[in-house]
Amino acid sequence: MGGADAGAKLRVTFAGLWGLGTEEDAELIERVKANPAGFVLKPQREGGGNNFYGKDAVAKLHELSPEERGAYILMQRIVPKPQPSALMRAGAVSLAPCISEVGFYSVFVGDGTKVFLSEPAGHLVRTKMEGVDEGGVAAGFAVISSPYLVS
Q1: Cα 14 to the chain's mean position, in Å?
Q2: I want to staple 64 with a disulfide (CB 3.0 to 4.6 A). Which of 59, 68, 90, 139 is the partner?
């Protein structure tokens, strides 16, 4: 498998992600209004928190000017299947249905015309209890996990 066919098969596994901040946002805002549960509005920063879900995302999109919307991204909501998990925080263990998120990191250095460095730099698995919208480890919503792969 290769070429365009392989790319198309891979592309359908990714969630949609859109930059905001132009007058062209109107079509995206209408999509969010039609299916609020299908999207999350996220500020472009790390650390978790301050995300908007469902009707709150619709309200926030209408509240922000196009310039203010440029500080956010709109992401298709991912709804994974919960798995039984054990979470440990401050020495206490909680057993609960949870979801895990895998993040892959890379390093890129370029000047707009030339790429000086572009390579993978690691991964992070974080786990949070089912029903928790936020996902920041430092914010107390999730814990760092280790991958456990099964066939």
Answers
A1: 11
A2: 68
Residue 115 main-chain phi, psi, to 5 deg: -95, 120
CA dihedral 93, 94, 97, 100 (to 10 degrees): -50
pLDDT digits (tens, 9 = 90+) for 28-78: 999 999 999 999 999 987 656 688 999 999 999 999 998 999 999 999 998
Of 80, 78, 95, 83, whose CA–CA distance to 150 is shortest?
A: 83
CB contact set of 119 (below 8 Å; sequence gap of 6+): 106, 107
Its pTM stands at 0.71
Amino acid at 130: E
* 83, 97 Cβ separation under 8 angstroms: yes
Regarding predicted confidence, which is higher, 119 or 49? Answer: 119
For residue 36, how many other CB atoms are within 10 A of its CB? 18
